[in-house]
Amino acid sequence: MQTFAAHWHPIVEITQLGRHGIEDRETRKITFGTHTGTHIDAPLHFIPHGKSVDKIPIEKLIGKATVVNLSFAKNRQEITPSDLEVAIGNRSMERLLVRFDWHKQWGNRDYYVEHPYLSEDACQWIVDHGCILLALDTPQPDNPQSPVFGSCCAPNHKILLGNEVVLVEYLTNTDKIKQDEIFLMVSPLNIMNADGAPARVVALEKE
Ligand SMILES: [Zn+2]
After folding, report:
1. What is the pLDDT of residues 155-195, one digit of tens each?
2. Whole-prediction pTM
3. 39 alpha carbon to ligand 1 midpoint, in Å?
4. Pairwise CA distance, residues 41 & 33, whole Å
5. What is the structure's pLDDT at 207?
6. What is the pLDDT of residues 5-27, one digit of tens each?
7. Ligand 1: distance of its center to the CA of 199 in Å?
8. Which residues have their alpha-adjacent CB atom under 5 A from ion ligand 1?
9. How many CA atoms lie less than 13 Å away from 42 in the CB half-sphere?
């Protein structure tokens, strides 16, 4: 499992402990970070004293979502509010699933450094239009060139999490979604006081 290369994101390890024929059962020890694979970011990730995963109401994580197809975006393209306006039209902005189809880059070295992203204005624009959840198939919402440390790092994370927009990152298989409106189920592990948590994310489409 690849993870963002920083000491605050551990390498995933799965170790078998119990064994059939010896302990007569299988069990495993798993080591992973709160931002491993498909996961949510709680406000606490970038906002001191922000809400943790266990404080996010489940109603926020489950419900109708609007699919925003931005799969036309080129590497490192910045998406503006007017791009979003065209892609969303007059549909609901409560929950947005943005499709860049970037999961296809999973495992490539480009995955973390070349992905398209929303401009700061675009993030503020979705906040102003009542977005409560933003799901992405990129590893994160910021310009991959933005600094990793300091007061100007990760401005989009700060705009979104600072306004209690839950982020879902590292989505996969977004290109398989056929409908514009889906029922989205985001089910993070309910880890007390956690800044993020791996999540199983399902998009249900109408028959
Ligand atoms: Zn994250």
Report:
1. 999 999 999 999 999 999 999 999 999 999 999 999 999 99
2. 0.96
3. 7
4. 12
5. 87
6. 899 999 999 999 999 999 999 99
7. 11
8. 35, 41, 169
9. 26
